[in-house]
Structures are given as C-alpha cells and as structure tokens.
Write a structure and sequence with these properties.
454 residues, 12 helices, 13 strands, binds 2-acetamido-2-deoxy-beta-D-glucopyranose, lipoprotein, Glucanosyltransferase, GPI-anchor, transmembrane helix, GH
C-alpha cells in the first residue's frame, strides 16, 4: 500500500511539473530535442542507431506496435543488436499502442513514426487532390496519439513522395503537411515532437529537397531532414562510397540530418559504413541512421526471418550487431553545429527540381477546426482511404500561416528543449519576400477558381 501511495505521489508531482507530458512515466526516457543541427537527449548528443521495423511490409499491413507479444519478442532482438531507435512506416490509429510503446521505453528505445498509411497518404501523381481534410484528420489523429509517448523521437510527414525529378512538383504539398503537423502539435499543446521528411535515394534532387524543407518562414520549416542512402556497398570506404562528398555538400545545413534507410545489399553486407557514420568525420553533419530492415520481406534486406512465432537471425544480423558493438558514438558533442538556421529556397531547375513557387498551399478549410477541436478518432487501417475524398486546398498560404499565436516554440518543459525552429536562430517570419506573397495570392485565386470549377 505504501509503495502504491509513494508512486502515486511521484506521479502527481511529475504531472504537476510537466503539464504537457501527463503520459510520461517518471522513469521514462527523456524526450529527444533539437539544438542546431543535432538531436539531444537532455544535455547529451543523441545519434540514431536503429533499424526499420515493419514485418509484413506494406502489402501485408500489420501494425507492429499494436501486438504486445510480437513487439516484446522483437524488442529483445533490438536490445541484443544495440539499438536505440526503430522506425515504423504505418500504424493503425484505432489500435492501442500503450503496451508496446511502454515496453520500448523500458528498453530505452525510441520510435520514429511515419504518420501515413497506404490508403491515407499524398498521391505524388495528384498531390492537390490528395492533400485534403480527410487525409489530415487521419494524420492528426495518429500524431495526437503518439505525441503523448516520451519515446516518440520524431514524425515523418512523408516517405519518398518524390521519387524522381518530375515528381518534385509534389514538394509544396509535402512541406504543407509538415507545416500542418507542427502547427497541430503547438495548437493542441502537445509535446513538440520533431517533424521532418524522409527522402528517397535520389542524387539529382536530394540537396534541393533538403534546402526546400528548411527554407522560408519559421512555421513552414522542418525540424530535421532524413534521406535513404544505399550508395555504400561493401567492400567500400568513406571516399569510395562518395559519403565524403555528401558530408561536404551538407556542411552548413542547419537541421539534424540522418539516414532513414541504409544498407546496400549488392554484395555480402558487413555494415562497414557503421564505423564511418558514427565517426567525427561524419557526426558534425550526420546524426546516425536506420538500417533497412529488421525482417526479411523477400528482397534480401532482412536481418531476421520471421515465420509464425519463430525469429531466425540471418548472417546480416550478426554483422550489424558486431559493427555496432565495435563503434561507440564519439565522445562529447561530435562537433555538431550549434548555430543551425534556414537555407535559401532552391532555384527551379526542371526536370530535376520542378518547384518554381516558394509559397505553399493553404491548409484545406475544413481541416482548420482540428487545430482547436483536436482530430478525434482516426479511421485506422480499415478506413476507406483519403486520396479522392474531402475538400482540397483552394488558396496559397500567406507567410506565417502555420504559426500559432500565443504559443512559444519551446513549450516543452526541458530547458534544452527547442526544435529546429528555435526562435532565436531562425530568420524572422517577415524575411519572406512580400512581393512573392502577393503574386502567389493572385495566382492562387486563379488556381482556386479553376479547382472549384473542376
Ligand atoms: C555534391 O554536390 C555537387 C554539386 O551540386 C554534385 O554535383 C554532386 O553530385 C554532389 N555529390 C553527392 C555525393 O551528392
Ligand atoms: C553552421 O551553421 C551555419 C548556419 O547554417 C552556417 O552558416 C555555418 O557555416 C555552419 N558552420 C559550419 C562549421 O559548418
């Protein structure tokens, strides 16, 4: 009885001190924050040491965080591998995730969560129609659910929406969704979980996409950027793989950067890249990465083979475990760049980068109410989808439309807590070129009219 009372007292005092993290347990992991171009766990630099985790893939869709028996089975493997993070591509927002999220927290493992599902996502071929209120309701419902867990490291607003030059036309919609999620977290006074995009492994517009997601007004810039990179194929090296050149190209980029998928499997995988990824030749610019992928899904990327309840370790499992074991993160802060800050918007250069207008679409009108009322219950995996539903955006957003008046960027309780949007290091909102704004509004009035007629 006494212990019950004591823990109740602790719970009450924690709740009082940390009003926005009611769900945080007193012994839970410290939420990850952003400072300059790096992640931090309290005062310690944090590097993502993780795997991508979606047994069944997108064809046999299963929510891996809704099945306590299987997630607990796999968490033992994550711990054995020496991981601190897993990425999950899709969750069912009608399911209960407490048990798996708490079991992960007990193992000090964070989750990077994609907020999309196959049926509720942007359609790169038709972004203006798929960016609608039905879609955003599903996204916000997932965000609301997972922002309460202290070990939700980050949200991916999109995954590989742009997969070549021409599809870069969809970039304003990806950026609008990122803006909307960030605004939703602040409007709903949820923890300001970092939000960013996971880009496909495309050399021809990787840098442009990174700059684009970090340009413009504070409200529309991401908190971090991630990309998939399969260019290091063992046996290789920092220079042979070209990773040295990528470090150079991203030097001075103002946001945390990490690999959302890596692990080329052209030859036998030895995960030689691990020793470079966590070395000071990369850590000034990179914050680790996620190996693709935990389970074998038929493309020979799996670390384990799952059949029924049995999990069998493949040779890659041992290679990764050994590579991580012999590679400690650098001591100190890994020479991160504490300045951070905005990029310039990349110039249009079709076909590789086909975005000529820096302004974003305004949030679809019926979705605005979610900012004040909350998202409510999501449709989950069994919902009927969103790509051709609801009401789309009909206007171009004005500068700063995604900011939340009266709410500070650093609304979370930790003193080192600030997002990539740290107010002090960001360009002021009005740095947005006003002329651009009025041209955009005029254009969007035309565009809006034509969309209404269609
Ligand atoms: C680095 O940037 C240069 C100049 O934009 C580009 O030509 C090159 O392909 C980039 N290298 C990598 C590895 O992305
Ligand atoms: C640190 O970041 C700032 C802002 O992005 C940039 O101007 C500066 O060059 C960076 N410094 C280094 C050493 O990369």
């Amino acid at each position: 009885m006494q212990t019950v009372l004591a823990s109740l007292a602790v719970a009450v005092s924690v709740a009082a001190a940390v009003p926005q993290q009611l769900a945080a347990r007193d012994d839970g992991p410290t939420p990850i924050t952003v400072k300059g171009n790096a992640f931090f766990q309290g005062d310690e630099r944090f590097y993502v040491r993780g795997v991508d985790y979606q047994p069944g893939g997108s064809s046999k869709l299963v929510d891996p965080l809704a099945e306590p028996t299987t997630c607990k089975r796999d968490i033992k493997k994550f711990t054995d591998l020496g991981l601190n993070t897993v990425r999950v591509y899709s969750v069912d927002n009608t399911a209960d995730h407490d048990e798996c999220m708490n079991a992960l927290a007990d193992a000090n493992i964070y989750v990077v969560l994609d907020v999309n599902t196959p049926k509720y996502s942007l359609n790169r071929a038709d972004p203006e129609v798929s960016y609608n209120d039905v879609y955003l309701q599903n996204v916000f419902s997932t965000v609301e659910m997972f922002a309460q867990y202290p070990n939700t490291l980050a949200f991916f607003s999109g995954n590989e929406v742009i997969n070549d030059g021409p599809s870069s036309k969809a970039a304003p919609y990806v950026k609008a969704v990122t803006r909307d999620i960030r605004q939703f977290l602040r409007s709903r006074k949820l923890r300001t979980v970092p939000v960013g995009y996971s880009a496909a492994d495309i050399d021809t517009n990787r840098l442009q996409m990174a700059e684009y997601m970090n340009c413009g007004t504070d409200d529309e810039r991401s908190d971090f950027f991630a990309f998939n990179d399969y260019s290091w194929c063992d046996p290789s090296s920092f220079t042979i793989s070209g990773w040295d050149e990528k470090v150079k190209n991203f030097t001075g980029y103002g946001l945390p950067l990490f690999l959302s998928e890596y692990g080329c499997n052209t030859n036998k995988r030895q995960f030689q890249e691990v020793s470079s990824l966590y070395d000071t030749k990369m850590t000034p610019v990179y914050s680790g990465g996620l190996v693709y992928e935990y389970s074998e899904e038929g493309s020979n990327y799996g670390l384990v083979k799952i059949s029924g309840d049995d999990v069998t370790e493949k040779p890659d499992y041992t290679e990764l475990k050994n590579a991580l074991k012999k590679t400690a993160p650098p001591k100190g802060d890994g020479n991160y760049n504490s300045t951070g800050g905005a990029s310039g918007c990349p110039a249009s250069s079709p076909p590789n980068w086909d975005v000529s207008e820096d302004a974003l679409p305004e949030i679809p009108a019926p979705a605005k109410k979610f900012m004040t009322e909350g998202a409510g219950k999501g449709p989950g995996f069994l919902g009927s989808g969103s790509q051709n539903k609801g009401t789309q955006s009909t206007a171009t957003a004005s500068a700063g439309s995604g900011s939340v008046s009266g709410s500070s960027e650093t609304s979370s309780s930790s003193p080192s807590s600030s997002t990539g949007a740290a107010a002090s290091v960001r360009a002021p909102e009005m740095s947005f070129v006003p002329l651009m704004g009025s041209v955009a509004v005029a254009l969007s009035t035309l565009l809006g009219a034509s969309l209404v007629l269609l």
